[in-house]
């Protein structure tokens, strides 16, 4: 580990000075500067915009941007953009998409699109009286946010509901003002937080300065949207006859495959170790679409995991039903995603992704992201219950291993051919390269 000097005011330095400060403390500093600069965008104005997305930007960090073609959603074929570094994820989504497109595709419906946020406060006052006066308080609060909500209302959204919640059974003197919002096609974080901060001021004034209440002042602890949005939910599913799986694997009948698949999903419902991995596979797809469209994948993951634990145990997010010879596999997931605002229109690749998807509404993008989540999960469970995950995974990872060994293009071609029939591993690739580099041809 190379220890770095303490510095205050780093963010105030120009980008060049930041780079020099870092380079000066690292061996081969000049090379580091030119390497970091080599990832700058060639158009200085685009680079400046990237710099301004965040603080202390030095350069850009590339991830592959790919697409899963043949994604059929409610009868429409789409090409879905995905940003992800894990080599097998887009391949798995694309394979599943093609597989299901031939069986009627994915089906998806929006269950609800309501978001929420809370003003969390501590108060020793008379809650019954505050509840009695709440209609008056609510009117005042709503009026305070008219300037903020007017535009959203024009678009058909705004504040849907507001209630006072007694939380004192969980924490002494703790209450919430809990508010529901419709943020239309925007993710809505800034809108919700601005409203909540205004409500917090109004609530404080109503209780502490109006003379209506006596005793210790109400203390607002924080005002913030909740990333747990159980009322912003999409349900996505695939279905077919069990017998349609006849060709899924050489070693399994359709019934055996479905039996194993069902057991795999049931295991993920009862065992947290498996559930976390099962759900991670779903978020491989959901996050990749979220990133490609300039959305906040941390918010969407946090929500998904909270939802997975909604009955007190963390469980798989998918559900399976096999009945009367039919296979039905579904994913129900809250996804608070936006197609306007935030980075969606600023980031050129996010803009392109939305364009590629035909400029969907936020609910349509919820459907697309959840479809890719289910596609990735189906691909994972199918591999796990048949050939195992490593064959496909290592095949996709082969090029990474070859790149680690600085393989040339002709070596790569030979390796890809050779490993069509041999098991990929780090050692096997090293052995293969050393034998061809020593003039031996491998078959
Ligand atoms: C790997 O990124 C994802 C899987 O582990 C998901 C799963 O096990 O279901 C393959």
Outline:
GO terms for molecular function: hydroxymethylglutaryl-CoA reductase (NADPH) activity. This protein is α+β, with helices and mostly antiparallel strands and 443 residues long. The chain folds into four domains: 1-62, no CATH class; 68-112 and 230-387, Alpha-Beta Complex (3-hydroxy-3-methylglutaryl-coenzyme A Reductase, Chain A, domain 2), CATH 3.90.770.10; 115-225, Alpha-Beta Plaits, CATH 3.30.70.420; 392-437, no CATH class.
Describe this structure in words.
This is 3-hydroxy-3-methylglutaryl-coenzyme A reductase. One of its GO terms (biological process) is coenzyme A metabolic process. This protein is α+β, with helices and mostly antiparallel strands and 443 residues long. The chain folds into 4 domains: 1-62, no CATH class; 68-112 and 230-387, Alpha-Beta Complex (3-hydroxy-3-methylglutaryl-coenzyme A Reductase, Chain A, domain 2); 115-225, Alpha-Beta Plaits (2-Layer Sandwich), CATH 3.30.70; 392-437, no CATH class. It has 16 helices and 10 strands. The strands form 3 sheets. Strands 3-8-10-9 form a 4-stranded antiparallel β-sheet. It has a 4-stranded antiparallel β-sheet with strand order 5-6-4-7. Strands 1-2 form a two-stranded antiparallel ribbon. β1 and β2 (76-83) form a beta hairpin. The mean pLDDT is 96. Bound molecules: (R)-mevalonate. Residues 86, 277-278, 280-281, 284, 380, 384, 389 line the site of (R)-mevalonate. (R)-mevalonate (MEV) binds at residues 86, 277-278, 280-281, 284, 380, 384, 389.
